[in-house]
């Protein structure tokens, strides 16, 4: 199935579930941890003025390290929401309570990862956050880059932007893979982190969200902007786990739209 023929998911109406805002814990952690993080990593933030202070915004970033999801909301000039694995919110005892409080405080909302209905539920959560006038952070590549290259973007970010009218601010992260390499259990001390905000992108000229061509062209524009900010080598491929079965290998080869 080509990108033009890819069906658009039927997501629920915006008033089904009210989106909760960040609470006091968010600001407490931001005031306590952010200064410490600034002291350790000496972040250089470029293009801060490009971040709209109001209205729905999608921060579309490259993804190099586990700590990317902490760096973005910690240093953003406004609260930023992102989806996190539901297991972070389901722990028992003191450790489980701390995990829930911490991830809630930095703007994370739980989601069950996977395909099918789980993917639609995640898309719907993101749409509702945007329609409430908030900002979210997403990784168009879908998952972390293990080799440091920038992979092709999946079209879910463009779909949300075209459907909701949200502006997309491209983000280029540099140095987070040095601060916490893939496989490391704890962040390293002192490597400098650079956060680059690009100019907001209005993708409406590509067409409606229902158009596969519009979603693909909008995604390519987003990825080109991220590449200009991050300076990574381009992979010219999707960031996919190696196929384990003949069916998976066939699906990766056939033309289809990656959400």
Automatic annotation (TrEMBL):
Q: Which domain of life is it from?
A: Bacteria
Pfam family example for this protein? Acyltransferase
Biased amino acid composition, Basic and acidic residues: 248-259
Region: Disordered; residue ranges are 239-259
SUPFAM superfamilies reported in the protein's UniProt record = Glycerol-3-phosphate (1)-acyltransferase
Q: Which residues form the Phospholipid/glycerol acyltransferase domain?
A: 57-176
Q: Report the InterPro entries cross-referenced here.
A: Plipid/glycerol_acylTrfase
Q: What is this protein called?
A: 1-acyl-sn-glycerol-3-phosphate acyltransferase
Native source species: Microbacterium saccharophilum
């Amino acid at each position: 199935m080509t990108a033009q023929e890819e069906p658009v998911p039927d997501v629920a109406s915006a008033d089904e579930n009210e989106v909760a805002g960040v609470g006091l814990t968010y600001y407490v952690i931001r005031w306590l941890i952010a200064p410490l993080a600034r002291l350790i990593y000496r972040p250089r933030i470029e293009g801060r003025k490009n971040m709209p202070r109001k209205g729905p915004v999608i921060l579309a970033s490259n993804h190099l390290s586990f700590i990317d999801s902490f760096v973005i909301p910690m240093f953003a000039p406004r609260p930023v929401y992102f989806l996190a694995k539901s297991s972070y919110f389901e722990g028992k005892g003191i450790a489980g309570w701390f995990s829930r409080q911490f991830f809630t405080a930095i703007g994370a909302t739980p989601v069950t990862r996977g395909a099918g209905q789980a993917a639609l539920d995640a898309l719907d959560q993101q749409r509702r956050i945007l329609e409430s006038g908030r900002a979210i952070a997403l990784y168009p590549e879908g998952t972390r880059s293990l080799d440091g290259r920038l992979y092709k973007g999946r079209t879910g970010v463009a779909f949300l932007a075209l459907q909701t009218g949200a502006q997309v601010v491209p983000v280029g992260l540099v140095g987070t893979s040095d601060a916490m390499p893939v496989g490391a259990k704890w962040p390293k001390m002192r490597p400098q982190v650079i956060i680059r905000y690009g100019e907001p992108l209005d993708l409406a000229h590509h067409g409606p969200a229902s158009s596969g061509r519009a979603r693909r062209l909008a995604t390519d524009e987003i990825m080109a902007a991220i590449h200009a900010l991050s300076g990574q080598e381009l992979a010219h491929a999707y960031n996919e786990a190696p196929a384990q079965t003949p069916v998976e290998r066939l699906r990766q080869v056939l033309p289809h739209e990656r959400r």
